[in-house]
Design brief:
The protein contains 5 helices and 4 strands, in the order βαβαββααα. By secondary structure, the chain is α/β, with parallel strands linked by helices. The protein has a single domain (4-153), classed as Collagenase (Catalytic Domain) (3-Layer(aba) Sandwich). Strands 1-2-4-3 form a 4-stranded mixed sheet, sandwiched between helices. The longest helix is centred in the C-terminal third of the chain and has 16 residues, at 107-122. The radius of gyration is 15 Å and the shape is globular.
Length: 159
C-alpha cells in the first residue's frame, strides 16, 4: 500500500516554492518508521494562526513551531482500502527561521525536524516535559528516535 499525505497552506499565506516536496518527504519518514496506510495532513501557516490554535487547544496564548492533532480513526475509502487517519500537523513558517537560527541549522533541516516531530506525535510518541535543546542530547524515546530519523534522512532534500 502507501500513505496518503495532504498538504496545504493557510489561506492568503504565500505558497512556498518547495511545497510539492513535502508529500514525498513525509511519505519517506512514514516508510522509515514502518507505517503504511496512514493519512496525514500537513498545514503550513503564520504565527498568528498557530497562536490561535495553541491558545484554543493547549491554553498557551503564544505561537509555537509545530502542533499535532491526533485522529486515530480507521476508515475505508470508496475502493475498500483501509486507511488510518493519523491526524493533522500544523507548522508555523514564521517560527521556522527563528528555530533554525536558535539551533544553528539551515531552515531545510529545521523543517524536516518539525515534520518528523509532528509525525511521531501522531503515532503516539510523547516527550513529556523534555524538549530539544541546543547542545543537549535527548533522553526520552521520542526525541532519540527523532534524532535517529533525522540522521538517516540527512541527504533527503526539500529545498
Amino acid at each position: 500500500m502507501a500513505n496518503r499525505i495532504l498538504v496545504d497552506v493557510e489561506e492568503n499565506y504565500p505558497v512556498p516554492s518547495w511545497l510539492d516536496k513535502i508529500e514525498p518527504f513525509t511519505s519517506r519518514v512514514l516508510e522509515k518508521c514502518g507505517y503504511d496506510g496512514q493519512e496525514v495532513s500537513v498545514l503550513f501557516c503564520s504565527d498568528s494562526f498557530i497562536q490561535n490554535l495553541n491558545s484554543e487547544y493547549r491554553g498557551i496564548d503564544s505561537p509555537t513551531d509545530v502542533l499535532s492533532f491526533e485522529n486515530g480513526e480507521t476508515y475505508s475509502d470508496e475502493d475498500g482500502t483501509q486507511w488510518f487517519a493519523a491526524g493533522d500537523i500544523v507548522i508555523s513558517l514564521d517560527t521556522l527561521p527563528k528555530n533554525a537560527e536558535y539551533f544553528e541549522v539551515d531552515q531545510e533541516e529545521e523543517l524536516k525536524r518539525l515534520i518528523v516531530h509532528g509525525l511521531l506525535h501522531l503515532n503516539g510518541y510523547d516527550h513529556g516535559e523534555e524538549h530539544v535543546e541546543k547542545g543537549k542530547e535527548p533522553d526520552c524515546e521520542m526525541l532519540v528516535l527523532q534524532k535517529k530519523i533525522m540522521e538517516e534522512l540527512k541527504d533527503e532534500h526539500i529545498f
